Amino acid sequence: PAIGEFQKAIKDPRKRFDSLSLLGECFLRKQLWDLAARQLERALEESPGLNSEQGKRVVYNLGILREKQGDKAQAREHFLQIYEVDVSYRDVSDKVTSLSG
Q1: Which of 69, 40, 70 has its CA nearest to residue 55?
Q2: 78 within 8 A of 62, measured Cβ to Cβ
């Protein structure tokens, strides 16, 4: 099971960011919103920033999470952060538009 492996890998400082990010994605897919939020927020704290694919992935997943939780304002804010630096990232442009107004 991937979740168990990522939980173990978090202890390795070299793998911590990726493990937190991927663990958050696993919980997101399982619709375990609170657990996904914890892991993604922890990953965001250690993120290399929005100039990296990894950083954008974490912020994007936080946007998806907030959207699934019904927090459209927070979701839009996460997508806007990415939109400011990379308008072509995934479907972020569509997300910003659909969450406006």
Answers
A1: 40
A2: yes
CA-based nearest residue to 60, from 38, 83, 42: 83
Q: What is the pTM of this model?
A: 0.94
What does 20-74 look like in DSSP terms, one character per residue?
Answer: HHHHHHHHHHTT-HHHHHHHHHHHHHT---TTSHHHHHHHHHHHHHHHHTT-HHH
Query: Rounded CA gap, 88 and 57, in Å?
Result: 13
A 10 A CB-CB count for 89 gives: 18
* 8 token code pair: 């173990």
Nearest to residue 6, comparing CAs of 17, 46, 65? 17
Backbone dihedral region for residue 12 (phi beyond 0: left; psi -120 to 50: alpha; all else: beta): beta
**pLDDT at residue number 1:** 82
DSSP 3-state of 10:
coil
Average pLDDT over residues 36-47: 96
